[in-house]
Design goal:
NAD(P)_OxRdtase_dom_sf; globular; Aldo/keto reductase; two-stranded antiparallel ribbon; NADP_OxRdtase_dom; 8-stranded parallel β-sheet; alpha/beta; 12 strands
């Protein structure tokens, strides 16, 4: 159960997210670019073959560091990216979801990553978007047909948005926020499980809060002899066989705790306690 099929490939269910490779709030350069690149390399050395990234991290910084760290990429590496948003001057995320903007963003990702084709691109739904969601998803489907990407995914969606997207094209994956204590969203997870669609959980550590020794998981983690981060990820992986997690870090020392979730079997009482949380 360590792997599943994603975008036509066998992928491990623990991935790596690049958001933290950039500076604070995923804006600008990191304080230590070499350590950030070392974290990416350590992830790959630990067996991670799913990397989630986006041109709007930095902007462009995470993609550039990823390329500098790994090119030429391993043949079995699956890089997934996201489009549909841009950064505001204050470090926020705002909609940029017109078909023209989405297509330009895909081409930007291709250039930044130094590849000719992207295995998987997610259309991220932004609540402030005034563009019909089906137009945004349809733009990615057109680029897939042109050969610039292989598979279309969607991100940050409700059950209704999932249904709308599936009416436009085949959806290879759904990428939504999910972690212990996260309110709502189980309906989308259940729908993807029933349909056999991979579900990628982003912010699986709750922006790092769940990894702290003072987090609600810490007591259970100590009893099991693992870190709170390991337990948080293992809980997600135990939800359903189509779930993968995409935690991120710019510290190579943290990677061991992340990949350790592959081997942790949850006792039923811990499972129940975290479900209740």
């Amino acid at each position: 159960m360590h792997s599943f099929t994603l975008a036509g490939r066998t992928a491990g269910r623990i991935g790596y997210g690049t958001m933290q490779l950039a500076g604070p709030k995923a804006m600008g350069e990191p304080a230590d670019p070499e350590r950030a690149k070392a974290a990416v390399r350590t992830a790959v050395e630990a067996g991670i073959r799913l990397i989630d990234t986006s041109g709007y991290y930095g902007p462009e910084v995470a993609n550039r560091l990823l390329a500098e760290a790994l090119r030429p990429y391993p043949d079995d590496l699956l890089i997934a990216t996201k489009v549909g948003a841009r950064r505001s001057p204050d470090g926020g995320f705002v909609a940029d979801a017109t078909p023209e903007a989405v297509k330009a963003a895909v081409r930007d990702n291709l250039r930044q990553l130094g590849v000719e084709r992207l295995p998987l691109v997610h259309a991220r739904f932004m609540p402030d978007s005034t563009v019909p969601w089906t137009d945004t998803v349809g733009a990615l489907a057109e680029l897939r047909d042109e050969g610039l990407l292989e598979h279309v995914g969607i991100s940050n969606v409700t059950l209704d948005l999932l249904d709308q997207a599936r009416a436009v094209t085949t959806i290879a994956s759904v990428e939504n926020e999910y972690h212990v204590g996260h309110p709502g969203g189980r309906d989308v997870l259940d729908a993807t499980t029933a349909a056999g669609i991979p579900y990628l959980a982003f912010r699986p550590l709750g922006n790092g809060a769940l990894a702290k020794v003072t987090s609600p998981l810490a007591k259970h983690a100590r009893q099991l002899g693992v870190s709170a981060a390991t337990l948080a990820l293992a809980w997600l992986l135990d939800l359903a066989p189509n779930v993968a997690v995409i935690p991120g870090t710019s510290n190579p020392d943290h990677l061991a705790d992340l990949v350790a979730a592959r081997e942790l079997a949850l006792p039923s009482d811990v499972r129940a306690a975290l479900d209740e949380a």
